[in-house]
Amino acid sequence: MEDTVKCTPPESLLKYANPLYVGIEPKDVTTAKAPDGKVTQLDDMLDSMIPPRQWVEESGAWMQHVSKDPATRHDVITLQEQLDRRHLERQARETGLCPVREDLYTQAFDELIRQVTMNGPERGLLLLRVRDEIRMTVDAYKTLYDSSVTFGVKKQLAAEKGMSEMEAKIEGLEDKKKALTNKVMELRNTVDVIEKREAERRALEDKKRKEEIDFLKHQGQHLDQFLKQVGGSTK
Fold it and tell me: Which residue among 12, 143, 174, 203 is buried most deeply as judged by most CB within 10 Å?
């Protein structure tokens, strides 16, 4: 079937063996066999470290195991060149968070694990532990980042809610201040009017009192003169 049906495997920096046609629907990769039908301990180790990939096309479902070919110096140089080229083709960012760059380096690291495992399974297992530890660390940082973003959004929403309440309170206080300022101005005008009226009243009373005193003094003078005249005539 593989000779008559064509397929287009997804691009990857990881070196795979020839694709296997598995039928119309995908199958469990744990039950699939290698292309030559022979499964060795190294094959089981590689499949457990880097499971076979599956994809579906119009022609049906396909599967690929990682390649069991030993790595050469040329393979390492080719991997580096492909990594640099894919960086440019997929426009991966050099710094910051970039899912494209993360995916490319994940593929490259898996290919290094495959190459090392073919030459020394023990070193491949050690690299696998390093890869899994890195992934767990990255996942922990992602969880922390998502939690911090969620916390920041909640704080921002709370701050915006508190800000609107504070702005409403400030506006109310400003209106109250304006009303009190107008009341103070009104009271001051009232006090000024009362003081002016009181000053005019006191001035009028002082004038009347002065006129009365002057009148009484004048009458007293006339009375004294009259008494003196009356007293002189009796003598």
Answer: 12
